[in-house]
Amino acid sequence: MPRVLTILAHGDADGVCSAAIVKAALSGEYDEVRVYFTHPVDLLKDFREAAAGDVYVVDVAIDELVARDVSEALMEHGGRVVYIDHHPLSVELPGVEVVHEEGASASELAYRLLGGRLPAGYSRVALYGAISDYLDDTQWVRDALSMWDKRVVYFEAGVLMLGLERARKDHEIKRAAVDHLSRNAAPSALPCLLRLAEEQARVNEELVAWVDKYAVVDGAVAYVVNPPGPLGLAATLARGLRGVEVGVAAERRRDGTCAVSMRSASLDLSEFLRHFARKHGVHAGGHRRAAGARMPASLLPALVSELNSWWLYRALLQRGPTASQ
After folding, report:
1. How does pLDDT run across 244-279, given as a tens digit for each residue?
2. Are 177 and 160 in contact (CB under 8 A)?
3. For the chain, which residues make up each domain, given as ranges?
4. What are the backbone dihedrals phi and psi of residue 266, each rounded to the nearest 5 degrees, phi first?
5. Least CB-packed of 19, 87, 127, 128 within 10 Å?
6. Which of 204, 119, 108 is nearest to 161 (CA)?
7. What CATH number should be reported for the domain whose range is 215-324?
8. How many helices (H) and strands (E) does the chain have?
9. CATH class of the 4-195 domain in this structure
C-alpha cells in the first residue's frame, strides 16, 4: 500500500511556507504528498474529506464553535497527526503531536521541527512566512536573517504575500507556490506570483484612499463594510487612519452572513471572540491582535457594541480599583 502524506494548510503566506517546509523535509519518505488548503471554519469538514495516511495540519486555528468535534476527528484518525500552529489553543488534542507556540509563525515552528532534514538555505522559506505574518521579531528570525540580505528576503516575502492575496481561492496557484518553495526557489521566480503581486499592490493602494473616506468611528472601534480589497488590510487601515483601538472590516454576503476581520494594537481579540462566539453561536478565531469571524450580518452592530464594552472593561481593569469608584 502506498504511503501518503496529507498536508492541510491555511492559504496565506505563512500556511503556504509551512506546507512547503513539511513537503520538502518529508516527501522522500512518502509515495505521494497531497496538499489541501483550508481555514478554521472548514477544517473539520476538510479533514474528514481529505485526510489520508499521515497528516500535518499547519497554520490553521481551531474554530471555537466546533473545537471539540475537531479534537475528536484528529484523535480518531487512523494515521499519525501532527498539528503545527501558533494561534491561541483552547482545546485539548489527545493523541495528536502538537507543536504550538504563540508569538512565532507556523513557518518558524515547522522549520524548527523539520529544518534539520533540510539544507540551511531553506531557512529563507520560513522567513518569508514569518515576515508575512508580522512575526519577524523572534530570536530565531533575527538569527536566521543574519545569513541573508534582509532587503532581498523582505522583498520576496512581499511578493509572496501579495501574490497569494490576489490568488484568493485559486488553490492550484497556491499548490504551485508550495511546490516552488519546496524546491527553495524565490517567490519572484514564479511568474504568476510576480504578476499577481503587482496587481494586488495597486488594489492595496486604492484601498487606502477608500478606507480613509468611508471608515466609521464608534467609540474605540473604526469599521468599514464591503471594502474593495483584503479585509485584514482594511481593518488595519481603519484602525490606523482613524487612530482608534480596534479596526473592523466586514464583507456582507448574499446568504445574509458576513466575513469579519479585526485588528488591534493591544486588545486581546482572540479572548473577546471566544466569548462572542459562545454567546452568539458563531464561527470565530485567530490571534490576539488579529482575528476574524463568520456570522450573520445582522450581528455586526452587536459586535461593534460588545467590542466597545470589552475595551472599556479591560481599560478599567488596567487602571485599578480606584478608576471605577
Report:
1. 999 999 999 999 999 999 999 889 998 898 889 889
2. yes
3. 4-195, 215-324
4. -145, -15
5. 87
6. 204
7. 3.10.310.30
8. 12, 11
9. alpha beta
